[in-house]
Amino acid sequence: MGEKSTRIFFILDDDPLFLEMFDWPAILPYVTGLLNPRPHHHASDAIVEYGSDLIGRGMGWHIDGHDDGYRGLGPHIPLLQLKIGYYLSDMTQPGQGNLCVVPGSHKAAFAPDQEDLKRRERFAGVAEICAPAGTAILFHNALWHSAGPFTREDGQRSMLYYAYEHPWMIASQEHWGYSKAFYNNLTPDRRRLFHGFLFDPPEIRWG
Fold it and tell me: Which of 32, 53, 69, 126 is such that its CA lies 20 to 30 A from the CA of 79?
């Protein structure tokens, strides 16, 4: 990150608005419909980036998940995490760190060419997601993606990311990043979105 740009992890206890977005009624049906009727929280973070810090930054292509993106389960890595990104700043113009994806790569029998993945610039077939503030982007853990380059010094990228997983998974150190008081003060509906071992006493959360 640059001098002003930052990424903040474990955000749910930082502000009530972050927790409100965690189970936002407009988006939760997509999580339960696409992933699991009993989804659990995986991770959440906030990203604030400025072109004045990061002008000329290259790409960083990757897929999400442990074990280098659950690659031992592929090809056709299953949907184990559903990631949701919220654009907080206007991203209708390219060149300000916009999310870039390789469409259909989560269904491919092979990874993109390694030479392409090493490129600092976009390559053929990459889609740069340009959208206004308030846009929600949902994507599969096995979708190849990267933050795009900054070509504008006045560009800004502000985003929230929330990830959800199946109830039988225990996949993120973030689960230990919050206090027992945070967990035990959650509403009953929100408690259902967390693994039961986090509570005192522990609770059954799947089965």
Answer: 126
Count of CB atoms within 10 A of residue 23's CB?
18
SS (H, E, C) 28-84: HHHHHHHCCCCCEEEEEEEEEEEHHHHECCCCCCECCCHHHHHHHHCCCCCCCEEEE
**Six-digit token pair at 117?**
């993945």
Q: What is the pLDDT of residue 53?
A: 92
- CB-based burial, 31-58: b 16+ in 10 Å, e otherwise: beeebbeebbbbbbbbbbbbbbbbeebe
Each residue's pLDDT tens digit, 160-176: 999 999 999 977 888 88
Q: How many domains does the chain have?
A: 1
Which domain CATH number covers 35? 2.60.120.620
CA dihedral 206, 68, 160, 108 (to 10 degrees): -90
Tokens of 161: 């990311």
CA separation for the pair 132, 91 (Å, rounded)? 5
